Amino acid sequence: MSGVIVSMRRTLLSCTSLARNGLVGGALAALLPAAPAKAADLIDSLSLVMDLNRQELAVLATALALLGFSVMAAILLMRTRVRTAKNEARLRARIGELQLQADRFGALLFAEPQILISWPAGDNRAQISGDIALVLPRDASPQRVLAFGTWLPPEPALQMDHAVDALRERGDGFQLTLTTAHGHMLEAIGRAIGGQAIVRIRELSGLRRDLAETNLRYKALSDETEMLRGFAAAAPWPIWAKGENGALTYANPAYVRATEATSAIDAQERKLELLDSDDRNAMERGLKDAANFTSRLPIVVGGERRIYDVRAVNVGSGSVGVAIDASEADALSSALVRMAEAHRRTLDQLSSGVAVFDGQRRLAFYNDSYRRLWDLDRNFLDAHPDDSSVLDQLRAARKLPEQPDFRAWKAKLHEAYRAVETAKDTWFLPDGRALSVVTTPNPEGGVTYLFDDVTESLDLARRFDGLIRVQRETLDSLAEGVAVFGSNGKAQLFNPAFVRMWKLSSDAMRDEPHIQTVEGWCHQLFDDPVVWRQIREAITAIENRADVPLKLERKDGSVLDGMIRPLPDGATMLTFQDITDTENVERALRERNEALEAADQMKVDFVHHVSYELRSPLTTIIGFAHFLSDPSTGPLTPKQAEYLDYVTKSTNALLALTNNILDLATIDAGAMKLELGQVDVSKAIELAAEGIQDRLATDRIRLKVEIAPDVGSFVGDEKRVVQVLYNLLANAVGFSPQDSTVGISARRTERSVVFTVTDSGPGIPADMKDKVFNWFESRSQGSRHRGAGLGLSLVRSFVELHGGKVRVDSIVGRGTVVICDFPTDQAAHRDAAE
């Protein structure tokens, strides 16, 4: 330290001279803390400084600062050199130790033959060291070691490539046991160490090789066991293993589920069995006798009885078994058997003869129609003869078509066994029959023969052709136009009348034009788009096909009556008939009928009008006649009294006629209403009889009344019922001869009261029975007076208004019977009418 102080002094003196020249500033403050000195030396330095003037002091401070920086730099440099020297010595010692240790490790590492391959991080160049002769000849290039395919079989070489790539890319370590192409066993270990990928390859020999082989076998066995356990666990079939004593030693999950156990251990502890006791005993006997057991057994799983294929074999001192669900297969097998049996029954019901020959050309199946068709013996067919034998027997019985070269014909027939398509032929037998023969090659080999007796079909075809010709001639002779259009809308058939009727060309129609084309040709005569659309839709419709009547009034004034008629084969027939003349006559008749109806209506209106107009003066006349006949008006001469009596009778008859006309008019207008109430049958007959007493006395006619005791009463309009009976009795009296009898009777049936009026008059001719109830229909034959012909009309109208019926039974010369039925339940009649 004293040396440093001396040098500082020297430096301080030199700095003083520099300060005087203005080169140094105030660096003294920086020097003082950086360089420790003894107190005396510092005091001397400070005394020297105090002698300087102010300008020199600044120069001196600068010099001192530079001096302090230099001193410190020197000190730091010295310390760094000392430290570096010490570190270098230690490093050299450590390198020596590491070199020694590396030499020991290298000697230890290469004490046995092996190869080391390393890849530095980020470098694709490999460093290879060791005994390359392990895999290659000694004079081979080291880089050939990386070509694994040169000294390894393809599969291990590929495995080695993948492992090395994974090690270099992701640092995945590996350990492989490899066998070279020369049969050497090697161990390859890959690790990522210190940023490098290192692969070590060494030979396995001796105990190590045996251990590696054992490990390989153990690993393979372990992998196989694990694979089998995984398969058994994933299998949907129950799988189990039993020991020598028959106890359950393994059960897969399917077995656990089938036995409804909670786990395999639970199944072992509870000794749960999949099969029942009889099936287990049968399986144990089969394993004991034949070392294996196979059977299809029913097993109840989950409360459902299913069919399983159970297979068990002895393995070692125990046995293993599996139960494969065969329910579906069993069901399909049963269904197949049933289907085959159903097919056999169906084929037996066919009228066509069926014979199936197998691949060996022997008869495998035949139906009864085949046997009856050829009249063959059942025992012969059940013996499964070959195809040639059957043909030879048929030829011997002269049942086959006559052939000039039977051998060639049979050989051609047997080509069906090598064919791939169905062949058809027709055989004309010596007995006059014609057979349709279809030979079909079977997919599994063999041929199926199908025989159909088409004798009748051919005969029908000939008849059909003749019938078609007759029908065509008939159509051509018809005056009615006929055209048939197919389901595609094209014309298939037409007759000359159709062509003439629509002024078409026969050649154009033979080209089968579409209905739209025909429509265009016919527009010149008829162009109604609605009707043509209806025709088009009827021809091309698929559903709701029905007859559609047509009536066409064409531009030329003609009228056609047409019909669209669907045919069973999907076609549609159009027929047109010219009804122009008929239409004209019908139109004339219609106009005449309308005129007659108008005249009849005018007659009815006239009658109504006249009836109402006559009633008022008649009422006046009747009133004055009654007034004049009253004694209070004064006495009348006999002649006046006679004339007044004539006036009274005539006006009463005229009033009755007028009332009848008004009643009929009211009924005809639908304005007549019945005043319903209880009608006493006996009283009604009595009232009606009172009205004809004078006529009975005048004509000396007896009235015979017969009323059943149980007739009672019924619901009706009493006034109208009396009017009906009065008209019937008046009509009977008018047509009965003098000194005769008119009868009236009443009886009750289940639903009506029946009135019967009989007379012994001349009767009604058959041609007049339907007219007696018409208005103003009067017959003078056999009657002593002529009426207006309204009585029976009123009778029918009033009876029908009650819901009843009137009928007349009459024989000419023997009288007439009129029967009226009045229903007893008017409520039912009103409901029916509503």
TrEMBL record:
Record GO terms (molecular function): kinase activity
InterPro entries, per the entry: HATPase_C_sf, HATPase_dom, His_kinase_dom, HisK_dim/P_dom, HisK_dim/P_sf, PAS, PAS-like_dom_sf, Sig_transdc_His_kin-like_C
Transmembrane segments: 58-78
E.C. number(s) listed in UniProt: 2.7.13.3
Pfam families registered for this protein in UniProt: HATPase_c, HisKA, PAS_7
Catalysis: reaction(s): ATP + protein L-histidine = ADP + protein N-phospho-L-histidine
Keywords on record: Kinase, Membrane, Phosphoprotein, Transferase, Transmembrane, Transmembrane helix
Domain Histidine kinase residue range list: 609-826
Annotated protein name in UniProt: histidine kinase
Taxonomy of the source species: Bacteria, Pseudomonadati, Pseudomonadota, Alphaproteobacteria, Hyphomicrobiales
